[in-house]
Design a protein that fits this description.
- This protein is an all-alpha fold.
- Strands 1-2 form a two-stranded antiparallel ribbon.
- Strand 1 and strand 2 form a beta hairpin.
- Helix 3 crosses helix 10.
- The protein is globular, with a radius of gyration of 22 Å.
Length: about 270
């Protein structure tokens, strides 16, 4: 066997096929193991617990709220990066995407230093408004938005760069302000990119662990989201941890299926 056929008459060299298959197994086998070892008979009982639904409900609410924050702040930021020229734009873009590669625990520590009771901004929020974010449900939203918003910004910025700016220029020649042109012309053009970015941000927020446990803690009913519940269950009840992991796996697959038309090419 020297290779297998791909499109047309070309063949894939066996030297490339073997590591490709090993890479596929490396990525897929752990997921298959999760499905195979799942306690399917006990699954309904595992998922029927009040704590499970409490964590799931909190996860859905916080991920949705974090996505809303990302939309309100991220879409204008993406427009700024894509449509304007200003000194230090490359540096700003690098800083915006930094949470993508920053260890989430480090992000949580950074949030504590800024928004904690003795933090740079948190001290002022506490004294002026009585607002305390760490170890609260809003703190979960803040932590999730911090790690999820770069996904939205990247997606929307890419959509903006692909959109033809002449439509905005035509709207401006007809008397529309820049804000009106953005709302009436640009936003409808980039709606698929905004939607894809929002879904990616929501999925990332739903699976957030490191920044959340560092900044918001792990308090059932208040800050314990599904990933934190999996972590806690793994110490005492591995079957419950597997059941919770299956829920998150199903959500991830649903997200990928929903984004297939934009991010995946069909043969």
């Amino acid at each position: 066997m020297t290779g297998v056929r791909r499109r047309g008459s070309a063949r894939i060299p066996f030297a490339l096929l073997l590591p490709a298959l090993l890479g596929l197994l490396f990525l897929v086998l752990p997921l298959l193991g999760l499905v195979i070892r799942a306690p399917w008979r006990a699954l309904p009982g595992q998922l029927a617990g009040a704590e499970v639904w409490q964590a799931l409900r909190l996860s859905l609410i916080c991920a949705t709220a974090a996505t809303a924050v990302a939309l309100v702040l991220g879409v204008p930021l993406a427009w700024l990066l894509a449509r304007t020229e200003f000194p230090g734009r490359r540096l700003i873009r690098a800083l915006v995407t930094l949470p993508l590669v920053l260890p989430p625990v480090v992000g949580g520590v950074a949030l504590l230093l800024v928004l904690g009771r003795n933090g740079i901004v948190g001290r002022w929020l506490d004294s002026a408004f009585g607002i305390t974010l760490p170890f609260t449900t809003p703190g979960v939203v803040v932590a999730e938005a911090f790690v999820a918003m770069p996904f939205l910004v990247i997606s929307v910025e890419g959509a903006l760069r692909a959109a033809d700016p002449r439509y905005e220029e035509a709207a401006a020649t007809l008397g529309a302000s820049r804000l009106t042109a953005f709302r009436r012309v640009t936003l409808p053009l980039i709606a698929p990119g905004v939607g894809a970015g929002a879904v990616l941000a929501w999925a990332r927020a739903l699976g957030e662990f490191g920044a959340t446990i560092t900044f918001a803690g792990n308090f059932p009913g208040t800050t314990q989201t599904m990933p934190l519940a999996v972590y806690l269950a793994m110490e005492n009840d591995p079957e419950a941890a597997i059941a919770l992991s299956l829920v998150l796996l199903a959500v991830s697959i649903a997200v990928l299926a929903g984004l297939r038309g934009r991010w995946m090419s069909t043969p």
